[in-house]
Amino acid sequence: MAANQVVLYFEKQEDALRFTLAAGSVLADPKRNHTVEDLLKVAREIGRASRITAKGTLNP
Predict the structure, then answer these.
(1) Looking at the domain assignment, is residue 26 inside a domain?
(2) How confident is the model at residue 15 (pLDDT cuts 50, 70, 90)?
């Protein structure tokens, strides 16, 4: 299933910025050769989200 849009809510603006920077560095890498540390950094920042919602059509 895939949603058209996923929204992350953060309590602190700094957490949202850290997530954006971590995810952006992984997504912008043209090699797609990410280290475990890169992926763990994104996962840690997602863990700071206070709420996550998905909107759109779900296709099973």
Answers:
(1) yes
(2) confident
Nearest to 52, CA basis, from 1, 17, 3: 3
Q: How many residues does the chain have?
A: 60
- Is the residue at 42 inside a domain? yes
For residue 60, the model assigns a pLDDT of 55
> Does residue 60 fall inside a structural domain?
no
Q: Encode pLDDT of 30-57 as tens digits.
A: 776 777 887 888 888 888 887 777 666 5
Burial class from Cβ neighbours inside 10 Å (0-12, 13-18, 19+) for residue 36 reads: exposed
Range of the domain at 44: 5-55
